Amino acid sequence: MRVGKEHACDVLVCGGGTAGVAAALAAARNGARTTLLERYGFCGGICVGSLVHTLDGLRNCRNYSQFVVGGVGREIVGRMLAAGGMATPDNPPECVTFDPEAFKLAADCLLEEAGVEVLFHLMAAAAEVEGNTVTAVIAAGKEGLWRLRARQFVDCTGDGDVSAFAGAEFEMDRQLQTMSMHFRIGGVQPGVPWDELEQAARRAMDAAYAAGLAPKYGGPWIIRIRDGEVSANCTRLYGDGTNTADLSRAERQGRRDMISILNILREAGPPFRDAYLLASACQIGVRETRRILGDYQITAADVREGRPCADAIALGSWPIDIHPADGRVGVHPHKDEPPAPYPIPARCLMVRGFDNLLTAGRCISATHEAHGSTRVSGTAMALGQAAGTLAALAHDSGLAARRLPIARVQDRLAAQGAILAL
To answer: Which of 139, 154, 207, 277 has a CA positioned 20 to 30 A from the CA of residue 399?
Structure first.
């Protein structure tokens, strides 16, 4: 294997989604020379590239006025708000909604200010390992292959790619949550509240499906970006997001289904009669693939019962939200019984068998059910901030992250605005 480019840093964060941005910012702000590797030309991950315009899990889902994620997550929201990039407040109350272009710019500015070296257009393709230590990530870029060496690695790829390449243990269900091709629609009747738009879309899709005229669909769930413009979450696509052929088929099917659904909404009359396609996601939204096994695996009972733990480094709050892959259509139950805010242990981020590899985002160590809650983007920001902080402190001390005094980690997170308890 011929490697043409070499790069070295203290902490390498792989994946520039919400978890990766938070991890890179936290690592740099805690004194580590930090590099962020991202395969696209922008940060934001599924929230930007897949047009999922919401930061789910930032709010307490039993009390929407209360935030359970602070620190970097709240800082990015503040930047987007100051730039006029937040969506209309007329939206589902559990969500924090925004224009994805605002996230791109906020992330760029914050990462530059923190001194993070951002390398876009690089995709992790392999890992080099010596014993229980990752020594480098091999990434593919325009020049060919890069070798990126670091002392600490944070896997924020969503699919746990780096961990899997390194040989880490993981779980992946036979029946994975469905994927979705989100899309933005303009020309929507102005002045109609989001919930009325959502109900109109559901009536149209229910009727079309009953008549055999609609593809498989979920929801639909509607997010109102601004008056007359919405994003739609409704395609329901099947497959394995770590399989190139499955992803390719799902991308093509998603675009076909998107047009079918848009035509159904138009034909149903107002409020979508004059609607037109503004954009489709540049990548299908993947909800579940590998769940990397860590020192602890958070369970559904931990989520539902809010079981305390001594090494809490973030709070989760999103319901156990599992998009069914058994052929069902429409709305699946998930908002009826949201958990009270629950602690997420640092051990879920520590990859089993490795001393310098952490995860953050949807690939952390969680059971299939618990993952239905921990996978969302707002929670990913809190997990990213924790992972970046752990990585920087581990580098500074020369200890494996699991050997750090947890009180020191928690104090550092709290000092930087993270919320560890209510």
So the answer is: 139
For residue 161, the one-letter residue type is D
Q: Is 373 exposed, middle or buried (0-12, 13-18, 19+ CB in 10 A)?
A: buried
User: Does the pLDDT of residue 335 top 90, yes or no?
Assistant: no
Which residues have C-beta within 8 Å of that of residue 191, sequence separation ≥ 6?
227
pLDDT digits (tens, 9 = 90+) for 236-257: 999 999 999 999 999 999 999 9
Q: DSSP string covering 185-250, please?
A: EE-PPTT--HHHHHHHHHHHHHHHHHTT-S-SEEEEEEEEEETTEEEEEEE-B-S-TT-HHHHHHH
From CA 289, how far away is CA 269, in angstroms rounded?
Answer: 38
Report the chain's C-alpha Rg in angstroms.
21
Closest CA to 204 of 278, 254, 273: 273
CA-based nearest residue to 39, from 124, 123, 147, 142: 123
How many angstroms separate the CA atoms of 304 and 417, rounded? 25
Say if CB 127 and CB 138 are below 8 A apart. Answer: yes
Distances (CA, A) of 393 to 100, 111, 387, 407: 32, 19, 10, 12
Note whether 171 and 288 are within 8 A (CB): no
Q: Is 210 exposed, middle or buried (0-12, 13-18, 19+ CB in 10 A)?
A: exposed
Amino acid in the structure at residue 212? G
Please identify which residue in the block is written with the tokens 């941005």: 21
> What share of the chain has pLDDT > 70, as a percent?
100
